[in-house]
Amino acid sequence: MNTGPGRPSPAQDPTAPGGAGTAAPPAEGRGAAGPGTGPASAGAVASPEGRGHTGITDRVLERVAACAVREVEQVGGAAPRMLGVPLGRDAGRADPRVSGHVEGRMAIVRVTLSVAYPAPIRQVVHRVREHVVSRVRELTGLEARQVDIDVTRLIHPDEPGRRVR
Questions:
Q1: Does the pLDDT of residue 90 top 60, yes or no?
Q2: Could you write out the DSSP letters of every residue in 63-77?
Q3: What is the pLDDT of residues 62-88, one digit of tens each?
C-alpha cells in the first residue's frame, strides 16, 4: 500500500483495517492524554480524604443492626403492636424491630426484641448491645455509641405434648 507524504499509515488511520485498534496502549503511569497529565504525574497518590466520600444511610445501619441482633442466641423478634397490644402471637419467628440514625461517624440504634424464657434478660441484652456495637463498627466503620434495647416479650419454649382440650 502506498502511503505517500500526505496519507497516514495503516496504524494511524482509524478507517484502515487493523488501524487504530493496533496502537500500543499508553505507558504505565501516563494518562491517555499524554505524559504529564493525571494524578500520577503529581508525584503522589491522593490521600484517602481527597478521593471521595462513602455515606452510610440510616436504612443500611438498621439492616446491619437487625442482622447483628439475629446472630445472638436466645433473642427473638417483636410482634407488631397497635396501641400497645401485640397483633401476633408468634414473636419468636418475627424479626427484631430496629431503627437507626447516622450523624457523621456516630450511630444511634434502637432495638425492640423478645427474649427466650428463662434466659437472664440483663445478660442477653448486654450480649446484644455488645454484638451490635461490634458488628456496626466492623461492617460500616461507624461508632454506635448509643444502643437502646426494649424487651417487649418473653418467649416460652414450646412444651412437647401440650395440647388445648
A1: no
A2: HHHHHHHHTSTTEE-
A3: 999 999 999 999 998 886 666 666 666
